[in-house]
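B(O/a)3-type cytochrome-c oxidase subunit 1, pasting as requested.
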Amino acid sequence: MMTKVDRRDGRLALAHLYAAFIALALGGLAGLLQVLVRSGSFTLPANIGYYQVLTVHGVLLGLVLTTFFILGFQHAAISRTSGTYRSGSRKAGWIGFWVMLVGTAMAAVMILLNEATVLYTFYAPLQAHWIFYLGLTFVVVGSWIGGGAMIAEYIHWRKKHPGQPSPLLTFMAIINTVLWIVATLGVAGTVLFQLLPWSLGLVSEVDVLISRTLFWYFGHPLVYFWLLPAYMAWYVIIPKIIGGKIFSDSLARLSFILFLLFSIPVGFHHQLVEPGIDATWKFLQVVLTFMVVIPSLMTAFSLFATFEMYGRSKGATGLFGWFKKLPWGDARFTVPFIGMAAFIPAGAGGLINASNQMNQVVHNTIWVTGHFHLTLATSVVLTFFGIAYWLVPHLTGRVLTKKMNKLAIIQAVVWAAGMSIMSGAMHAVGLLGAPRRSSFSTYGDAPQALDWIPYQVAQAVGGTILFLGIILILYIFTNLAFFAPKGEEEFPIGETADEAEKTPMVLENWKIWLTVLAALILIAYTIPFADMIQNAPPGSNGFKLW
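Structure tokens follow.
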């Protein structure tokens, strides 16, 4: 196992990280404008539309920031744990990066020209310019090329080491890559066979139900595509940072396999109020959605077992004495830990969203947006920041100084404070019925709109604090990439505890797990999808383009 990422692979990973943080800057500015408009006391200049800004924010932060950061992190992780990339894989990684970048530019230009104000979900019947859809296609295809490079390196490692379990971080990255490739088949299907031909005028209508179903086939596992890299850091990297050991290699691998199996065939729980889908199939997918609680609890158990074992080894006594022994002054630990803590209320909110009965209360309210900001914008993003604090200097040949370490902890506290205010207000006013995505000016004659004003102001306050957090992280990132002192920063990889059981090779038997995954998807989607096509409205085409 390498101790340092090869410089050539490091440049590939860094290119992805640069793109991710540029997206953070632009998407964060759009988010600030959004909450200011929603407060009712700010008007966008130059005829910029509220929903145009909302689309910029959602696409850049929900799709561009996350995808580029994750691929960059995973390229570095595989190079670090499975060895330097072969030239063909590295070339494929660069091709994937440039294809994604071109696609991002195409989509961004169309949004800025107000030709693609279709929100993050780009639901039909909202229609964008065909260049926007083609750009999204390039982003997906580019990610497949980059993911293919990772899979090729994994296969190469397995051939060189028959009968041995692959490095844990490599295995986790491959699970996440497979999840992404399988999930994006849905969004690629609706874009290539429905939305792109529709925007080009090749067909006059699309089947909206099929389009939304294909989007949410992708949209829910997208959440786990974001989450699993954070879990990689929690499982493998945090134990090394605190000076402890991984509780169980086998438990970590099994939890990732379960995330793969139970995150994809569950898209109907985002469509519980939509007609056209039989209640039986909705019920089945809700049950499968709740199954994902199992690997989540396994993860919580494993992490806190690691923390307690470390604390006890340092002499901690009592039920929570170990808590004081954790390295709270180290941003590489503290920042992701705040993300972990945020996942407790975020996960509880997810159970409410996935419940057929409770979903009726919060569906299409700004509660959902608040939940989204707790999961992605807090648990995931803070963990990504924590990764960046050691990964960027590791790749640039610099060090995380005491000053930057202290500023990173301040940034996380600012972020947590701003998000608590903004997301808390979103959850609260969502329970009062405030609609999702709407600005103050679009509430119309809603009699309760005046009751929502204090919550909208609180969102603006929280959003402003968050933007200060974005300025801080951009300053820290720039320092670590270009100005920090030269030196060697560790890429921390945890070791498995001596007491842990040997990892069984069945956990890397892809024939079993991919067969189970395919079976679950077919069971969950085949009959309802056939019903949608069979009962499609006249002229809606669905996939019948010709």
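Note for the archive: The radius of gyration is 23 Å.
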